[in-house]
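User: I would dearly like some help making sense of a protein record. I have put the entry right below:
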Amino acid sequence: MDRRGFTLLELIMVLVIIGILISIAGPMYFKTVERSRIAEAKRMLGMIRMAQMRYYAEHAIFTPNINELDIDVSNGKYFNMELTASVNGITPGTAVSSSGYLGAVTRNNVQNVYGTNYQIKIGPKGDLCHDGTWPSQLGALIPQCS
């Protein structure tokens, strides 16, 4: 007897194996993709920091209004730039904190598989921190603000 094709059992086994591989590789893929999107946030925050440092050199104070800086304040694809900063009492040597930062970006909902709109802030020394809504799946990539 000449038999062609696959049996139902063989097809089910292939689907089970594919499902197991996807369940292992899927979370790692999404984590890698989100980490690459954080590069956009770091670029935006670096622009804010450099503009704030130029503003500080001219006025001896940081500005809480990002619109006063010499940069384009348009939003990115995955992050929205915050237009205010908490600059009271900070100097170029101050570490970033939840109450003292030069600028911040917030994750928007574009292809956001983790569902949290976390915020990343930058300080005068270029250090980064996040608010408490950081996805635990991303690990300790950026420390939480104090």
Observations:
- Residues 106 and 119 are 4 Å apart (CA to CA).
- The chain has a mean pLDDT of 90.
